[in-house]
């Protein structure tokens, strides 16, 4: 099956700086890659996703890049704010609704 | 538009008791997923349903766990008998029609088995 690795496990940045979280996957047939943000005491919430026919997608301060050849994808958050502090999960799937999640990155934005 | 609804939000029970977690998916979604989240193992898929039919229950830890989806708007995850190692946050998620579609998570049920 698919194996998704996520790095780093923890990340601290100063407010206003950028944060980058990276994931690799093993199944070359995977073609959908969502990112979730989980705040304390809440369920994971989708923040951005990318499909395999696109190399990059941006939504305001958040962007995701995908390198299918290298089988890795990354989440980029620019101009970080304290409210960006949360745990972020990547996932990969080849379809059939079976998502494979990374182990999560705990992001702390220091005011 | 209401999201995925889970109840109860918190459950504290004693070892050996039966526990039933409930989920109402987003209206119109045809896939439903049960996950368990712990610090040690992260997010684990327990079972998922497509059009109310269980498709893959290979993640269900053992026979003490069972899940049902009697109709498109309701699902239950039951643990009988419960054990302390079942303590975790249980999430329900749903996904709309489509071969590859986003999963939308509920707020979770935090289960503590004493």
Provide key terms for this protein:
heterodimer; A: six-stranded mixed sheet; B: about 110 residues; mainly beta; 11 strands; globular
Q: Which two protein chains have the largest interface (Cβ within 8 Å of the partner's Cβ), and how many residues from each?
A: A-B, 21 and 23 residues
* Rg of chain A, nearest Å: 13 Å
Structural class of chain A: mainly beta
Low-pLDDT runs of 5+ residues of chain B are none
How large is the share of residues in beta strands of chain A? over 45%
Largest sheet of chain B: 7 strands, mixed
Span of the ends, CA to CA of chain B: 36 Å
What is the count of helical runs of chain B?
A: 0
Low-confidence stretches of chain A: none
Mean pLDDT of chain B: 92
The count of β-strands of chain B is 11
Number of helices of chain A: 0
Q: Supply the helix-strand structural class of chain B.
A: mainly beta
- Oligomeric state of the chains? heterodimer
Shape of chain A: globular
Q: What is the mean pLDDT of chain A?
A: 94
Task: Walk me through what this model shows.
The complex is a heterodimer of chains A (111) and B (114). Chain A has strands at residues 4-7, 10-14, 19-25, 32-38, 45-51, 56-59, 62-67, 72-77, 86-92, 100-101, 105-110. With 111 residues, chain A is an all-beta fold. In chain A, the strands form two sheets. In chain A, strands 2, 4, 5, 9, 10 and 11 form a six-stranded mixed beta sheet that branches. In chain A, strands 1-3-8-7-6 form a five-stranded antiparallel beta sheet, with no helix packed on it. In chain A, a hairpin with a 7-residue loop joins strand 9 and strand 10. Chain A is globular, with a radius of gyration of 13 Å. Chain B is 0% helix and 54% strand. Chain B has no helices and eleven strands. Chain B has strands at 5-7, 10-13, 19-24, 31-38, 42-50, 53-56, 65-71, 74-79, 88-95, 104-105, 109-113. In chain B, the strands form two sheets. In chain B, strands 2, 4, 5, 6, 9, 10 and 11 form a seven-stranded mixed beta sheet that branches. A four-stranded antiparallel beta sheet of chain B has the order 1-3-8-7, with no helix packed on it. Chain B is globular, with a radius of gyration of 13 Å. Chains A and B meet through strand 4 and strand 5 of A and strand 5, strand 9 and strand 10 of B.
